[in-house]
């Protein structure tokens, strides 16, 4: 084994000790390369489907044509799995599932549970009641997620059997589709920030107000407060995101939907008087009178048995007030 001469060993050790000391004391410096100044600034992300300055829409109405008048249920409802031959319900029974159009962005009415992944809510329970009356098994439901603007086309194309999606019964819509009797009565109000001075429609002048596209809420708020700038979105959940980003000042729709949004953010509140009533009905394709009568029979049963109140108490107890089960008015 060859050994290093003593003077050289001492020099090597001295150099190593010096380097070690420099590292330990942080005296070794490596200059960073120059960075150019930023060339852009970040803003809030833009949600897909957002539209500003929505064209003026007609004020919704259910009174001019007595829109809530509907067909009487059959005198004797068929038993599950025993639908009348050649009926709409018999076709659904043969297929093996009820196809229901709804959305998953209307908290408390139809939304996806973040833990189980199941779609649930007030509208979902109504769908299960209809499926149970046809199959004797309320789980035989296939949900198709629709935006508010897609609801009528889905019924006209018959890609769904029914739409149960906080859908207001109006004269305009009755030209394209049919409805059941009302299963819920809502009141349009305003969602604002707790520290905001917005307490009613008067304070919405020159403010940005969100509503989902294809809903009756837009026409009503434009008629009541024409100075509001309407921002339309694909879903009500998008309105919540825009509020949290500070891109809008308020949102307006039915109180039950707004309560679901407020339940997700403690900085929001539902304010103001009722801007008008909305009667929710089950949307049904034109010409399916047997299905209208059948669904009305299901709604009649859940009102009479107290099941409707159970569903309301489960999902909508957050509301400080509310109507009871709406009473049907039949035209035959």
SSE map:
Layout: H1 6-24, E1 51-52, E2 69-70, H2 88-95, E3 98-102, E4 105-106, E5 110-112, E6 119-120, H3 122-135, E7 141-145, H4 151-156, E8 162-163, H5 171-174, E9 178-193, E10 208-212, H6 217-224, E11 229-233, H7 236-244, E12 250-254, H8 255-262, E13 268-271, E14 277-284, H9 289-305, H10 307-316, E15 329-330
Parallel strand pairs: 2-15, 3-7, 3-8, 10-11, 10-12
Antiparallel strand pairs: 1-11, 4-5, 5-6, 9-12, 9-13, 9-14
Anisotropy-based shape: globular
What is the percent of helical residues? 25-40%
Count all strands and give the number: 15
Task: Tell me the name of the CATH homologous superfamily of the largest domain.
Answer: Periplasmic binding protein-like II
Sequence stretches where pLDDT stays below 50 over 5 or more residues = 22-28
Features:
3-stranded parallel beta sheet, 10 helices, D-Maltodextrin-Binding Protein, domain 2, alpha/beta, 332 residues, 7-stranded mixed beta sheet, 2 domains, 20% strand
How is this structure best summarized?
With 332 residues, this protein is an alpha/beta fold. It contains ten helices and 15 strands. The longest helix is centred in the N-terminal third of the chain and has 19 residues, at 6-24.
Describe the structure.
The protein has helices at 6-24, 88-95, 122-135, 151-156, 171-174, 217-224, 236-244, 255-262, 289-305, 307-316; strands at 51-52, 69-70, 98-102, 105-106, 110-112, 119-120, 141-145, 162-163, 178-193, 208-212, 229-233, 250-254, 268-271, 277-284, 329-330. The chain has 332 residues and is of the alpha/beta class. The protein has two domains: 61-185 and 279-326, D-Maltodextrin-Binding Protein, domain 2, CATH 3.40.190; 187-271, D-Maltodextrin-Binding Protein, domain 2 (3-Layer(aba) Sandwich). α3 (122-135) packs across α9. The model is unreliable at 22-28 (pLDDT under 50).
């Amino acid at each position: 084994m060859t050994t290093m001469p003593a003077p050289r060993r001492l020099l090597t050790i001295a150099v190593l000790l010096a380097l070690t000391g420099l590292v330990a004391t942080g005296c070794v410096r490596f200059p960073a390369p120059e960075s150019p100044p930023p060339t852009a600034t970040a803003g809030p992300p833009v949600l897909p489907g957002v539209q500003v300055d929505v064209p003026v829409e007609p004020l919704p109405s259910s009174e001019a044509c007595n829109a809530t008048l509907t067909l009487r249920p059959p005198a004797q409802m068929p038993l599950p799995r025993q639908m009348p031959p050649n009926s709409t319900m018999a076709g659904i029974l043969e297929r093996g599932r009820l196809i229901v159009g709804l959305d998953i962005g209307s908290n408390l009415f139809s939304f996806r549970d973040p833990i189980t992944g199941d779609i649930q809510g007030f509208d979902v329970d109504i769908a299960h009641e209809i499926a149970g009356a046809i199959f004797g098994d309320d789980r035989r439901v296939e949900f198709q997620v629709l935006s508010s603007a897609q609801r009528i086309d889905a019924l006209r194309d018959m890609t769904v059997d029914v739409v149960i999606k906080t859908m207001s019964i109006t004269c305009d819509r009755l030209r394209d589709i049919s409805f059941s009797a009302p299963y819920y009565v809502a009141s349009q109000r305003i969602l604002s920030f707790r520290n905001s001075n917005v307490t009613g429609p008067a304070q919405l002048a020159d403010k940005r107000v969100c509503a989902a596209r294809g809903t009756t809420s837009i026409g009503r708020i434009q008629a009541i407060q024409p100075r509001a700038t309407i921002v339309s979105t694909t879903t009500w959940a998008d309105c919540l995101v825009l509020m949290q980003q500070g891109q809008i000042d308020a949102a307006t729709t039915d109180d039950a939907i707004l309560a679901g949004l407020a339940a997700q953010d403690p900085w929001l509140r539902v304010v103001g008087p009722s801007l008008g009533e909305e009667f929710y009905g089950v949307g049904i394709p034109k010409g399916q009178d047997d299905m209208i009568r059948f669904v009305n029979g299901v709604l009649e049963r859940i009102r009479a048995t107290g099941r409707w109140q159970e569903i309301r108490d489960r999902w909508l107890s957050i509301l400080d007030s509310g109507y009871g089960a709406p009473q049907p008015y039949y035209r035959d």
